[in-house]
Design brief:
Layout (H helix, E strand, L loop, with lengths): L24 E12 L2 H9 L7 H14 L1 H4 L10 E9 L4 E12 L4 H19 L7 E11 L6 E2 L6
Antiparallel strand pairs: 1-3, 1-4, 2-3, 4-5
Helix pairs in contact: 2-4
Length: about 160
């Protein structure tokens, strides 16, 4: 893999990468991130007693909608035909953490890493929005790509050494 940034032309102008010559392949990406909440919010989330409604259900839908809107938010992202998008949660009551995991799949000429990262971000922001009346001191952190497969650059797994 080269170190050249491919979103710039030879004159340094920002451009959308031309993917028209690439072979369509199945591409899957998973991202995750965490929101730290206090005991009161955690109890409200787990018991379903947040006044605005089913926080995790709404956040899941928001994350999937965010996946589908990525190209409208990130200037150089291509519009993709998303074939699968899911958001799951891991809840650690003792640590006061809700982790969102977003997996996105498509068959196309470019990957879905940005879509998975956007899905996680929108999910966590939705949790914040729906719980901020209880406490505004929540912290969103550690949003990162967990894995990706497909495409010319090959597979990636977070924490594994890359060349």
């Amino acid at each position: 893999m080269g170190d050249k940034l491919n979103h710039f032309d030879d004159n340094g102008n920002a451009v959308m990468v031309d993917v028209s010559g690439k072979e369509p392949t199945v591409r899957v990406a998973t991202a995750r991130g965490t929101i730290r909440v206090n005991e009161k919010i955690m109890e409200a989330l787990v018991s379903g007693n947040v006044k605005k409604g089913d926080v995790l259900g709404v956040a899941r839908v928001a994350g999937i909608m965010g996946v589908k809107q990525t190209s409208g938010l990130i200037p150089m992202c291509h519009t993709l035909l998303i074939q699968k998008a899911s958001v799951d949660f891991e809840i650690d009551r003792e640590k006061g953490e809700v982790t969102a995991i977003c997996t996105v799949k498509t068959k196309g000429e470019t990957g879905v890493e940005m879509e998975a990262l956007t899905g996680v971000s929108v999910t966590l922001l939705t949790i914040y929005d729906m719980c901020k009346a209880i406490d505004k001191g929540m912290v969103i952190e550690n949003i990162h790509l967990v894995s990706k497969s497909g495409g010319k650059s090959g597979d990636f797994v977070f924490g594994q050494k890359t060349l």
